[in-house]
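Annotators were shown the component list below and the corresponding predicted structure, then asked to write short factual statements about the assembly.
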Amino acid sequence: MKLTPVFFPVMNILTSLDALKKYRKTLSNKTIGLVPTMGHLHQGHLSLCQKSQADNDITIVSIFVNPAQFNQKKDFKNYPRTIDEDLKLLKTQKIDAVFLPKIKAMYPDNYQVQVEEIQLSRVLEGRFRPGHVSGMLTIVLKLLNLVQATHAYFGEKDYQQLLLIKKMADAFFIPCKIIPCATLRASDKLALSSRNSRLTPSQRKKALHFPRLLHQKNISTKKITQELTKLGFKVDYVVDKWGRRLAAVCLDGIRLIDNVKSKVR
Ligand code: AMP
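Structure shown to annotators:
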């Protein structure tokens, strides 16, 4: 009996800029989707990957915990890092390549050159996390330039981030389509987030008030702020803007952000 060999595609793990550039050279005339992440992957990240795989010939996921976008050293230090599990998950998902650059390689200038946006970045996340927006835009620009993707995928969960990235891509004539992806939620409505794993079971139970109040009809942003504060959240903001209701809170030092489409209220 003749056995037909079965080939499983390998997932390319690219840990240097040179490895990425070499791999990228093999992909001429292909559509390439980039999914930038900071790791500790969950189904929300995978939904971006699936969208990219449906749209493109090749999907590249980057995992890089970007020091420049953390305004607090402690938050950067405590950010969950689970690279082995992440790679397993991406392999199961049949991702073509994962880019895992080193901090030094991404910042040869020692953070001296950064992207600055002077309007959208002054409110909400920008206001509560000084330096975050510039750090985020800078790393996204670096990744877009390095990967030269045709499409890049970003979650609506970070709605202001998505608007800022679109604006940057337009302003700098970046030849990459920025594709928004809907927020994936757990069955209890909490938006999936890498930070959720830091919640204890009782904190998680309390955290559910956050999406519950955001989804509630006929309630003002002021009332939501009052309710959340009464429940023990530290509320950074709850606002109606850009056709969305956007909010950020801290629960025992763990920061949660979310937004929903504005309903007629
Ligand atoms: P992060 O690893 O948190 O930087 O997220 C990487 C990308 O995944 C960003 O574009 C996020 O907006 C997106 N993302 C994170 N959580 C979710 C979610 N629950 N649903 C959809 N996209 C998400």
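Statements collected:
1. Strands lie at 12-14, 32-37, 58-63, 97-99, 151-155, 177-181, 234-241, 244-251, 254-261.
2. The chain has two domains: 12-181, 194-260.
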